[in-house]
UniProtKB/TrEMBL annotation:
Residues 32-65 form the Putative zinc-finger domain. This is Predicted transmembrane transcriptional regulator (Anti-sigma factor). The lineage of its organism: Bacteria, Bacillati, Actinomycetota, Actinomycetes, Actinomycetales. Keywords: Membrane, Transmembrane.
Length: 145
């Protein structure tokens, strides 16, 4: 079953549809499926430089993927504009104050275990062996009222 967003056979206009594996710049082209799979990471600028270059080239030459990228970009702009509200100043001040209090009262706790052994050497000397081992280390936030 064909992806309903995928262009019908014969309608692709990308380098892939033209039967080439590389675009003029010498960068290996990616398929529409690969472009769709990485579109969100591409738009968030989270791809490697090589993948970003390949996806940018593909989106620039494939009208189908270009439309999808444009639609996703437009959707992100709408969401960004609708979610621009900030918390009221009183709430922001309370939260920031609480965070600074929590940071100031952080305590590092380290759990160790110690074992002591007494042994006698071949020469008859008594030796005490003390072995300490760190079992865990963590930071605990002490919260006040």
């Amino acid at each position: 079953m064909r992806d309903r967003m995928e262009p019908a056979a014969g309608n692709e206009t990308s380098a892939e549809a033209a039967g080439t594996n590389e675009v003029a710049a010498g960068v290996p082209d990616c398929s529409c499926a690969e472009a769709r799979a990485h579109l969100e990471a591409f738009l968030d600028r989270e791809c490697t430089a090589d993948l970003t270059e390949r996806l940018a080239q593909h989106v620039a030459t494939c009208p189908y993927c270009s439309r999808i990228a444009d639609a996703e970009t437009h959707l992100r702009e709408i969401l960004r504009s609708r979610c621009a509200e900030q918390a009221p100043p009183e709430l922001r001040a309370r939260v920031l104050g609480r965070l600074s209090t929590l940071r100031a009262t952080a305590v590092s706790v380290t759990t160790t275990s110690t074992t002591t052994q007494t042994r006698t050497t071949a020469s008859g000397r008594v030796v005490r062996i003390v072995e300490s081992r760190v079992e865990s280390s963590r930071t605990v936030h002490v919260e006040g009222d």
